[in-house]
């Protein structure tokens, strides 16, 4: 969508109201158990939110858009023991620490595909842009990773049919499954879709 809130800010006169949040549920086996016949994951009781600062106290350029925040909190509520990183707390260092212990990792943020240099395709975190090379350095233990952002599944095709883009970095880091988009996304529709997706996995 041309008016997508998660698209890269315009080069001229843009506001950087585009911070990402990464929800990192750490309930081991929570979704894996859902596939067993006759068993259902227990409904979560609460979500644990750990923003560094309340959203309203952050400078405008550091705030997470409301619809994206709603998406993350809605997804987190479907897990029993989620760790939620919002705004300035959603740093690459925090992600690196949490990722090895997470069965599901959900990003809701801005995404940029760089056709001119695909390995610099990136996701907007609280402390800057996370590139494909940064994704390579994560330790993902057969995790499901959802990249709920614009064009996260777009790749460039290199000689030998090698795909270069964000998906390459996360698969190389150990992701078992990726949920990505091939287009610019609408925040309202995406929030509804993501919650329905995780409810479907749970049920």
Structure description:
By secondary structure, the protein is of the alpha/beta class. 23% of the residues lie in helices and 20% in strands. It contains five helices and eleven strands. Strands 2-3-1-4-8-11 form a six-stranded mixed sheet, with helices on both faces. The two termini are 31 Å apart.
Describe the secondary-structure layout.
Blueprint: E1 21-25, E2 48-49, H1 66-76, E3 82-85, H2 92-98, E4 104-108, E5 111-112, E6 122-125, E7 128-131, H3 132-136, E8 144-148, E9 156-158, E10 162-164, H4 166-172, E11 177-179, H5 187-202
Parallel strand pairs: 2-3, 4-8, 8-11
Antiparallel strand pairs: 1-3, 1-4, 5-6, 6-7, 9-10
Helix pairs in contact: 1-5
Structure in a nutshell:
This protein has a 6-stranded mixed sheet, with helices on both faces. It has a 3-stranded antiparallel sheet with strand order 5-6-7.
């Amino acid at each position: 969508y041309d008016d997508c809130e998660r698209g890269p800010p315009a080069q001229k006169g843009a506001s950087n109201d585009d911070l990402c949040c990464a929800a990192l549920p750490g309930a081991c086996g929570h979704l894996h158990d859902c596939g067993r016949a006759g068993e259902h994951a227990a409904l979560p009781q609460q979500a644990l939110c750990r923003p560094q600062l309340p959203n309203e106290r952050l400078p405008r350029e550091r705030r997470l858009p409301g619809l994206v925040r709603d998406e993350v909190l809605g997804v987190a509520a479907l897990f029993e023991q989620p760790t939620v990183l919002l705004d300035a707390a959603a740093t690459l260092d925090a992600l690196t620490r949490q990722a090895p212990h997470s069965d599901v990792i959900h990003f809701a943020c801005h995404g940029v595909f760089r056709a001119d240099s695909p390995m610099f395709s990136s996701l907007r975190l609280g402390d800057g842009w996370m590139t494909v090379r940064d994704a390579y350095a994560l330790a993902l233990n057969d995790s499901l990773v959802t990249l709920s952002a614009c064009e996260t599944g777009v790749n460039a095709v290199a000689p030998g049919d090698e795909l270069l883009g964000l998906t390459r970095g996360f698969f190389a880091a150990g992701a078992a499954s990726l949920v990505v988009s091939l287009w610019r996304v609408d925040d309202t529709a995406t929030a509804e879709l993501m919650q329905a997706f995780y409810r479907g996995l749970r049920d």
